[in-house]
Design brief:
The protein is mostly helical. It has one domain. The protein is built from 8 helices and no strands. Helix 1 packs across helix 5 and helix 6 crosses helix 8. It is globular and about 50 Å long.
């Protein structure tokens, strides 16, 4: 019993560490995946390389949001404090929620979808550039009324929107994906964004859940 409790405490401590330190891996992953893709995927000449390219783009995006200069969680809490009256000192997203959103979607679903696009059907990866562009645009839209920088804006302007848009244009121009597949991909991207935004709104209005 005591050993089981000790193992459980160790697991809990390790999980808590991951929830607060995952972002420190983003610079390394951005460099590593860029090198890997240029060496092993780009030479194949497949347009699906651009689906893969969204992965290092997003690592840079996450690095800007959560590591350097960081401040995305604080910005989000300040924004919701003005719209829902939430306490700006209490994070709208917990470190655990931020971990699962970022790691779950970008670190797991992005590469899994890219692999499926190359091995099963290209349609599996079309939502990736759509999501990349959509999330980048959300930073731009948020910055316009604020008239100031928000964490993730620079990567959105320099990488998310240009690379994601290029991927969509090249893939569509190459005849990859039917109209229905593209429509579904856009809806999936919108759905992910809506789920994240809806969860943040829910958290901001339910302080007991924090």
């Amino acid at each position: 019993m005591e050993k089981s409790c000790l193992n459980g405490c160790r697991f809990s401590a390790a999980a808590s560490w991951l929830h607060t330190h995952w972002q420190y891996g983003t610079p390394f992953l951005a460099v590593y995946t860029t090198f890997f893709l240029l060496v092993f995927v780009y030479p194949s000449g497949t347009p699906l390389f651009l689906v893969w390219a969204c992965l290092p783009v997003y690592f840079v995006h996450q690095c800007e949001e959560y590591l350097w200069p960081g401040g995305f969680m604080e910005m989000l809490s300040q924004r919701f404090s003005g719209t829902s009256g939430a306490n700006p000192a209490v994070p709208v997203l917990s470190p655990r929620a931020a971990y699962w959103i970022n790691v779950g979607i970008i670190w797991v679903l992005f590469p899994a979808s890219a692999v499926a696009a190359m091995t099963v059907s290209p349609a599996w990866g079309l939502w990736v550039p759509c999501f990349t562009v959509l999330n980048g645009m959300s930073h731009v839209v948020a910055a316009i009324p604020d008239r100031r920088y928000n964490p993730g804006l620079a990567a959105s302007l320099a990488l998310n929107i240009p690379v994601g848009t290029a991927a969509i244009i090249v893939l569509a121009g190459a005849g990859i994906g039917s109209a229905a597949a593209w429509a579904a991909s856009i809806l999936i991207a919108i759905g992910f964004m809506a789920l994240i935004a809806g969860y943040a709104v829910y958290r901001s209005r339910n302080p007991a859940r924090r």
